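The records we work with from here on pair a chain with its fold. Here is one such record, which you should read through line by line:
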Amino acid sequence: MAQWIDRVGAKRMWGLGFVIFSAASLANLGLDGLGPAIYLLRCSILLGAALVFASSLCYVSQIAPPSRRTEAIGLLGVGGFLGMLVGPLLGDLFLGTGQRSREDFAALFIAAAVANLVPLLLLTKLRSPEMDGPVRSVRLTDFIRTVWRYWPGAILLVDFAFGVAMTCPLIFLASFIDQAPLQMGNLSMLGVFFTCYAGWAIALRIGMRRWPEVYGPRPVLIGGMLFMALAMFAFLLVDASRPWLLLLPAVLGGTGHALTFHTMTSLTLDPFPPQYRGTASALALMMLDMGTFVGAPVLGKLGQVAGFNSLFAAVGVTCLGATWIYARCSR
């Protein structure tokens, strides 16, 4: 994928990602049971999402002036936070809380397809970045050679740690809420968390969009990772008698996310020349996904054996450790 972004261009691959996601969503309408097809379509949806994510990062990094690249990536990320806000609400709207029918899921898949076709049309209005240099190979050996040549260093460890940290809100939080259990009237505690997390992160990302340019991406990143660690430790204060304290890790985590993702991504992309930004974007996302892929089963086992407090504490320590190593190596 990384090599094809460099070869074909970020804008075209971005559009291809939207097409794949929309087609796979609509193809779900033809399913009539569990089987290989459902796994193929699930993989296709993930492929489409990966193409959109990596290509959009690459495109923005190629279009934005170098001094404002981090800000541009941050504003792009606001769209992700908006999806985090609106997605659960739309899911509840289409699927509801009662008995779910085939028609409910059909409406959800159609809405997902339309939601990707609209930005595809808007994408045609964007200019294509001008890239110099020869046509690039799509061989794996060339990907490895490019990464080795422009190796970004210890920032990849931060990418990995951030992926580990994201397992908490995206994978383990729902189980934590159910097991505690956390209740505040008829409110969905998961919805409350993500509304606070994403809403606060959007406000900070927009309000502090010039911080990386003014103070530099490195100190902003370090501060963001410290907030991510604090968010993990703040989960230790939450229990059934104090469900409202779930807002604390939501605010701290939203702050950490708002300060971290765009700065660590920009710092990962920085050593690579513009014509290899597809490779750089894929590398950054690969390390983040690896943190989630490796962290999820390990933390899940830890949570089973020692409880959620140990799980959250382990993630907090991971964030602190990665931040300390990066701070030492990047001085």
